[in-house]
Amino acid sequence: MLAIETFDQRQGGNVLYKALSHPLAAEAARGLAAELAAAGPWALFDPDGIAPALFALCPGLATPAELYVQDVREIGSERAGLLARPLTDLPRSAARRVLIATFGAERSKSRLAPVLPPGAEALSLDTIRLPAALLSEKTRYLEQRNFATNFVFFRDEDGLSTRLVTANYWAGYGAGDVRLWLRLYDGSGKTLATWEEKLPRGVAGFALDSRELRRRFDLPPFTGQIFLHVIGAAGHDVVKYALDSFASAGGSSLSCTHDANAWPSERYAGLPAPRPDERVILWLQNSHAVPIPPGAIALDRMGAEAPVALEQEIPPFATRALDVATLLPGISWPAQIEIRAGRHVVRPRYEVVRDGRTRIAHVNVERADLAPDPALPTLPAPLGRGYLLPFPILPRQRYTSIVQPTPMATTEADLPLRLDLFDPAGHPAGSHFLGRLRRDHALALDLDTILAPDALPEGGHGELVYDFRAGGEGNGWLHALFRYADRASGHEAESSFGAHIFNTLMTYRDEPQSYNGPPPGLSTRLFLRLGEGGRRSFTCLIYPASAPWHPRSATRLELHDGEGRQIAEAPLTIACSGSALVWPHRLFSAQDLARAGSCGYVLVRDTTCRLFGYHGLTDERGGFSLDHMFGF
Predict the structure, then answer these.
(1) Which residue pairs, CB below 8 angstroms and at least 24 apart, start in 31-35?
(2) What's the CATH number where 19 sits?
(3) Overall pTM surpassing 0.90 (yes/no)
(4) Cα dihedral 417, 418, 423, 426 sign
(5) Edge-to-edge strands, sheet with 279-285
(6) 498: in domain
(7) Which of 341, 366, 391 is at the close of a domain?
(8) pLDDT, tens digit, 9 for 90 and up, residues 449-484
(9) Is there a single domain that holds both residue 222 and residue 306?
(10) Both 84 and 114 in a single domain?
(11) Half-sphere exposure of residue 554: CA atoms within 13 angstroms, side-chain side
(12) Residue 565 CB coordination number (10 Å)
């Protein structure tokens, strides 16, 4: 496992990790490594304890002769295979270079000058800083907004293309000029293109289309990834987007997936095993400038504790397609697969291939820092049903809906769950105790098996909730996979997400979660991209409530053009515990949608409650996509 710290749920992302792993920092690190190697023996002064991450992420950096620390409590400790020495011993070193393992090291250099070995020179990590033109906050280098970055699975090959869609939502937090610095890698990790895009001012829509990039840069077919860096970010450093994958040569594939979650994790879960007529491809995309060594990534049947390692090296920033059956032959749906990723990759995508169609979805971070919460079985009454995981039930005459709970913490031994069902008007439509599911359970519940044929003809939604009637434990990090199929065309789509406490004035820890500011989150701002290339967009908006809240929502759907200007608005009310299936082409005129353009979008706004949404596209072949929406 890489010796790096990436994301902590209490403190957020580790900005030092991003500063060391940025592709431009990695390029500069090669030059620093060469300079240190050419100078002869060198020493490392590590005041902040970052030596393990430095050696893990900086390519070519050889082991120093000595390592020095300033905190007397650290003397004699081991870091990166070296015993820490007191800084007062530095004058007696034979080192010709001393690397200060910190950014902004001018003060440290002046302090070290009197104790440097004779003829030695002090260097620092300032030699691998990003250019000033790429910084959002120039006065403080290790500022989160300087590293608003993410990765994007990107493909234009074999008749399949990709299109990223998002908005300049940083403008809504006061950002001025916002630019993107982008680098496209092919499957081998080779750089195909590096460029910048200037975003329109205002909360404007934006798209990156693989077909257009191939034309612009005269590229061959590729399957790889884009590294995306936002310059001028304000408000927060999270880069969110929707990614559509579709057949561009007359095929029938269509799917969408969420942003990559920019923090590499030790493990991921929620990867479905293939059915007998399917192949499940896991896309492993190296997120760093150092190779992933053989054996560093493994797959395991969830709960089996018998991981099987991939004995292949993956080069820096390279992409590998792993058919899960090559490591786990004989495993089949509804079994689930755990990915032991060793912090080498951001949240991976997987692709299901069946009947000439493909669909792409993502796995989720399996947390190693989460223990069962003994308070969950007896949460106070004002929190009502507590944690809810809402998901759509699509109109049942046309679609099947399947729900599969997925363990998402390494300590999770069981899942004591109940399924509550609601029609669009918020009326209860049934409640089903799913039991105390074991970690290695193989439940994939087709709602056709528990609903009468004429029940919920227009769909509705379901909510997974904890139910401790048979014992068990919970941690609040409740996740599930939702799979849908068109009964006529056979096309399928799937998505996954986790639970929250919704729409109560009372709070518990960081719930009800808020997009901006402390809990409770009692407002909605969701992004819905419009269709393109003959495809139409839709959304299933759900008004979940852990406890009784406003009887109806006061929702507005605001149509914006590609410059961020609002050009139309439609009101919508949703009953508490109800839902609505919304089609922009039925709410807005053809003229207004044409004015919005291919980068236009609908902003779902509500200041009275927090809605949860799933969005997708449909095409004329019966294809459709579905994934959860993002807010900002």
Answers:
(1) 31/127, 32/58, 32/61, 32/99, 32/123, 32/127, 32/128, 33/58, 33/59, 33/60, 33/61, 33/62, 34/60, 35/97, 35/123
(2) 3.40.50
(3) yes
(4) negative
(5) 319-323, 279-285, 349-354, 357-362
(6) yes
(7) 366
(8) 999 999 999 999 999 999 999 999 999 999 999 999
(9) no
(10) yes
(11) 6
(12) 15
- Rg (the chain; Cα; Å): 26
Backbone angles phi, psi at 587, to 5 degrees: -95, -35
Same domain, 402 and 510: yes
Q: What count of Cα atoms within 13 Å lies in the side-chain half-sphere of residue 186?
A: 11
Average pLDDT over residues 226-241: 95
Residue 286, number of CB atoms within 10 A of its CB: 25
Which are the contacts of 353, defined by CB distance < 8 A and separation ≥ 6?
278, 279, 280, 281
If DSSP codes are grouped into helix, strand and coil, which group holds residue 219? coil
- Please report, for the domain that includes residue 165, its CATH number: 2.60.290.11
Cβ count near 98 (within 10 Å): 25
Q: Is residue 371 part of a domain?
A: no
Residues 277 and 246 in one domain: no
Residue scoring higher pLDDT (80 or 378): 378
Calpha distance 22→181 (Å, rounded) = 12
Same domain, 487 and 522: yes
Residue with tokens 């839709």: 538
Measured on CA atoms in the order 508, 509, 514, 520, is the torsion positive or negative?
positive
Closest CA to 277 of 225, 327, 226, 333: 333
Q: What pLDDT digit, counting tens, does each position of 564-593 carry?
A: 999 999 999 999 999 999 999 999 999 999
Beta-strand runs (E) in 9-120: 12-13, 42-45, 66-69, 78-79, 82-86, 97-100
Neighbours of 382 (CB within 10 A): 12
Asked if residue 427 and residue 350 are part of one domain, the reply reads no
The label of the residue with tokens 């515990």 reads 577
pLDDT band at 9 (very low <50, low <70, confident <90, very high): low
Looking at the domain assignment, is residue 262 inside a domain?
no
162 within 8 A of 245, measured Cβ to Cβ: yes
Same domain, 540 and 588: yes
Q: What stretch of H or E contains 497?
A: strand 492-498
Last residue of a domain, one of 128, 163, 196: 128
Residues 566, 527: contact at Cβ < 8 Å? no
Task: Say if residues 324 and 360 touch (Cβ distance below 8 Å).
Answer: no
CB atoms within 10 A of CB 627: 24
Residue 133 within a domain: no
State percent of the chain over pLDDT 70: 99
CA–CA distance, 287 with 151 (Å, rounded to integer) = 8
Is the confidence at residue 515, as pLDDT, over 80? no
Contact call for residues 409 and 477 (beta carbons, < 8 A): yes
Range of the domain at 465: 376-628
Q: Measured in Å, how far apart are the chain's first and last C-alpha atoms? A: 33
Q: CA nearest 203: which of 163, 162, 175, 231? A: 175
Q: Are residues 219 and 317 in the same domain?
A: no
Count of domains for the chain: 4
Q: How far apart are CA 572 and CA 357, in angstroms?
A: 35
d(CA 581, CA 558) in angstroms, rounded, equals 16
- Tokens 């053989």 correspond to 294
Q: Which two tokens stand for residue 356?
A: 């000439």
- Provide mean pLDDT across the span 262-273: 96
Which residues are within 8 A (CB) of 113 and not within 5 positions of it... i.e. 6 or more apart? Answer: 122
- Measure CA 22 to chain center: 17
- Whether pLDDT at 7 is above 70: no
Report how far residue 153's alpha carbon sits from residue 281's, in angstroms, rounded to the nearest whole number: 13
pLDDT at 264 over 70: yes
